[in-house]
Amino acid sequence: MPEDPIQPEVGPEPSAPTALPSPAVPTPPAPAPLPAGSPPFPPAQLLLARPKTVYINYFDGINESKVKALMALCSDIIAKCRPETLYFLVSSNGGSVNAGIALYNFLRALPVEIVMHNTGSIDSIATVIFLAGNRRYAALHSTFLFHGVQMTCNQGVVLNYTQLQEHVSMMQQDENKIAGIIAARTQLTEAEIRQLFRQGESKDLAFAKEKGIIHEAKDAAIPKDAPFMTVNLN
């Protein structure tokens, strides 16, 4: 009787490889809330588009709360949209000297190009903010007003000699800071700037162009479908 052929031994079926757990993805921290009165962040399509230039319309005064909100907005736009340029269409009657100088220094420090376009009137401390622009333009029917620093006293306020000296000293230092920025960013001399402070006179575009306050006089034109927002602050 023939012998049965030797059957190969069959081992257990190989088990499926064990799936390794996916590495944990850290949850990004939530963005810091904007100050009260800040405008809403640009819409989602702006975040997806990653535009090279974002246009911002600002028609308002200058005070601490408005400057804080505008700083927060600019920071968010740069962090989330990564634009190359922030293009401001601006008209302002000025306001707080300290807030204006802080905004000037903030805009100068941003890692983007700043363009300023006067769309009406740039007055008082708003002239310093305007000079933060790397490129500066003015609409054909717009003006600039330079004047010295003033102090508003509430009714019934009583100051002694030392307090009065303190206020005068602060006003002098504020004028020195403003004059220093204007001299550094334009072709105006120190003597001309001090004369402007005493005159309190509105200047036209011919003067602005001659003295290097603007690079060109032209009306603002926002390209079709360009990302654009108007800032309304409380």
Description:
This protein is α/β, with parallel strands linked by helices and 234 residues long. The protein has a single domain (44-231), classed as 2-enoyl-CoA Hydratase, Chain A, domain 1. The protein has helices spanning 44-49, 64-81, 97-109, 126-130, 161-185, 190-199, 205-210, and strands at 53-59, 85-92, 113-123, 135-138, 143-145, 202-203, 216-217, 228-231. Strands 1, 2, 3, 4, 5, 6, 7 and 8 form an eight-stranded mixed sheet that branches. Strand 2 (85-92), helix 3 (97-109) and strand 3 form a beta-alpha-beta unit. Helix 5 packs across helix 6. It is globular, with a radius of gyration of 30 Å. The relative contact order is 0.16.
Order of helices and strands: HEHEHEHEEHHEHEE
The total strand number stands at: 8
* Most strands sheet: 8 strands, mixed
Shape: globular
**Helix percentage:** 25-40%
CATH C-level name: Alpha Beta
Q: Which architecture per CATH?
A: Alpha-Beta Complex
Structural class designation: alpha/beta
Please indicate the percent range of residues in DSSP E strands (runs of 2 or more).
Answer: 15-25%
Briefly note the CATH topology name. 2-enoyl-CoA Hydratase, Chain A, domain 1
CATH superfamily: 2-enoyl-CoA Hydratase, Chain A, domain 1
- Report the average pLDDT across residues: 83
Work out the radius of gyration. 30 Å
Unreliable parts: 30-38
The first-to-last residue Cα distance is 106 Å
Query: Number of domains in the coordinates?
Result: 1
Number of helices: 7
